[in-house]
Structures are given as C-alpha cells and as structure tokens.
Amino acid sequence: MLKLPVSPFLYRPTSTLTHAGVTCSPVKSGHRVKIVIGNFSMETDNVRVDRGQVSAQLLNQLSRQDALSFTSDIYWVWQMVHTTETVRTRTYFVGNVTNNGDTLEKKTVNWFVDTRRWKKVLSTKHNGLVKSGSKTELRNVIQNGASVRVALQSFGCSRFRRGQDESDGSSEEHGGQKHRNCKGWFVIRADELELGSSGEVAAQSVMSVSTEAAEWKEFQIKDDPFWRFMVVTIQSRVDVSQWRVGAHIDDGHFSEKAKVNWFVNY
What we know:
The protein is mainly β and 266 residues long. It has helices spanning 25-28, 135-143, 157-161, and strands at residues 11-13, 33-37, 40-43, 46-50, 53-58, 64-66, 69-70, 75-82, 86-93, 99-106, 110-114, 119-124, 130-133, 147-153, 171-174, 177-180, 185-189, 192-195, 201-205, 211-213, 219-221, 226-233, 237-244, 250-257, 259-265.
C-alpha cells in the first residue's frame, strides 16, 4: 500500500508495473508515473492501462547534442514506453511534420509512482450518472487548489462501433476483423480546470498525440500525428479537438461519452 511520506512529491519504485499478471492499480488510481532508463528520467504525459500492461507516452523532450546543449536543428523526441520494456521513438522537426527517424529498442525500464495520496472523489458512469463520490466535493477541493487527474474507460468505443474512429490505436485486427478493447483505462492530468456557474466541472488536457497499434498491446505514435486536445466534464462528456502536428490543419472535432474517475491530491 502506498503511504504518504514526509514529502508528498517523492516517487517510489514499483514492482506492480510489469506485464505478467498484475493489476496496475497505482496508475489506475491516479498516481503520476515517472520512467528511468539508464541516465534518462522523465515524467509521463499520459498512460494507458490495458489488460495488465502499461503504455506511457513521453512528449516533453527535445533533441540535444549532449547533456548540456541542444542540437542546432532541433526536433521533438517522442516515445511510447511499455512494461514489455519496448521503447518506440519517433522524432519530428519542430514546426513541421517531417519525420527525422524512428527507433525500436528493448531497454531496461524502471517505473516509479508518486507517493502522494490521490483520492477518488467522483466516479461517473458512461451515461453521466454518479456511480460513487460527490460532484460538490470535487468542486470544493478544486477551489482550494487541488491537483486533479482523470481516468477514462471505454472512451471512443461508440464511435468505433459506428465505424467513425479508430485513431487512438486501441483497435486491433484479428482474422480480418477489427476489434476494440473497451475495458482499458486512459489516464491524463488536468492541465486546466473550470467551474461552471450551474455546478459543472470541466478539465482540459492538452498533452496527447495520436497513436496506432503496433505489436500486441503495444502502441506507436502515428506517422502523420495530430495533437488530441480534450475537455472532460463531470457529465462523462469528452470533447475532442484534433490538430495536425506542425500545421494548422483540423483533423477532427467530436464529442464522446466515457466512464470517468476523478482523482485529487490536496
């Protein structure tokens, strides 16, 4: 069990984030995840928990010629890291979508979860009804400066069934038919929060780019990626606006329903 230490900002190593028969409960419970690979350390921007495996997306890295300075022609270094120890890297020049190279590597990955106490204060069903918790409590702790993380389940499934969306990479093909797992969780941080006058709460999340299925239960960033900006509400509505990386090109705007868990730390 995770215990709150003297400093709430520490991370602890975890043995629960492996791909063999685990629950991945710290991630699904809202904890932030940090990855250490050799001399490289970085907090994840979003994580996917699917059938006992964690896939983490790392977006806040730019090219460097050494530890102290950037390259002259700078580019993004974006990664998908999995608990299978597969690390898929794609690089794109800043300001356009020119791919500067891909790598696929097996590396020793050390996973850490923060030791903050993340409390689930609200859980809503796919139809927006409250399953547990309190909308009022969520509003109150936000007004008092709480950090918020949001976990989505079955996000995008109804659009997939209508043949409209498979762009987040959670669909797979078997026997010539596409299938989608709707039981996994997608966990994001609330980058901005807004409280409506009628009791609404909305969380905006901006650090996610499009993925596609790679190996079994693994993902990679798409060849022609787009930013996926999301607004999640306590009515289980997720508004999504997708814009091409490096260009002002609209790649789709839609709203979807999902099961949503709201976690806070204060």
